[in-house]
Amino acid sequence: MHYKNYIFDLYGTLIDIHTDEKDPELWKFMVDYFDTHFGIKTTARKLKSDYKKICAEEVDKLAKRNGSAHPEIKIEWVWERLLGVPCSEAEMLDLCTAFREKSRVKFQLYPGVMDVFDKIRAGGGKIYLLSNAQRLFTERELELTGILDAFDDIFISSDMGIKKPDPNFIDSLMKKHSLVPSESVMIGNEVFADMGSAAAAGIDGIYLNTYNHRLSEIKKHLRKCGATESGIEVTIIDEGNECMKYVME
């Protein structure tokens, strides 16, 4: 199972993370943050409700602009509307970082990540990141886990306005680096987003069952996303949190 180009998903693949944006304490924290840093008074219930509403509105507007069935907004657009007052880039970064860090319940690298990267490098391979994520806080999380400099290139959906499984997302990476499909593989923990992208690009996929889905469910979704009929090879690694350890075997 050796290729020249390894395209990794991030969350649920390299980073074991759980966030809880429904936690009442998160929204109480943000109410205090708005008051302390911007002098804005609101309530937790209203802030949470407005956040969800504006997110949906921004997604809908972006979909109409770019025509993608899988649009990815910049989360700062939402906070700008919620604030309704001028906000510097530094202030926005601090706000989004505070929200993200407060919402995190679990955050760590999966076992074996660095070993896999070392093996890929030792074999002369390239390492790419293709992540449905927000640049504003994802870059910081890459730094915190020590893998920011591990990639030959990083593609984050909020930069592109589209996300997996929009085929244009993975295609942009493939074209930029002139990757040969037969020499490339997509590695991720989501069937539709990751294996669907692999199928669209005509590259093999390695599915990491880090969330312990039933095998019958995985195979059903592989058929639905087109991976089964695409002619690509999809390897399923069913080892829970230990999946990364088996990627290079």
UniProtKB/TrEMBL annotation:
Keywords assigned by UniProt, alphabetized: Hydrolase
SUPFAM superfamilies: HAD-like
UniProt GO BP: DNA repair
One Pfam family, short name: Hydrolase
Keyword RNA-binding in annotation: no
Entry annotated with the keyword Hydrolase: yes
Gene3D superfamilies listed in its UniProt record: 1.10.150.520, HAD superfamily/HAD-like (3.40.50.1000)
GO molecular function, one term: phosphoglycolate phosphatase activity
Name of the protein in question: Putative hydrolase of the HAD superfamily
Organism: Pseudobutyrivibrio xylanivorans
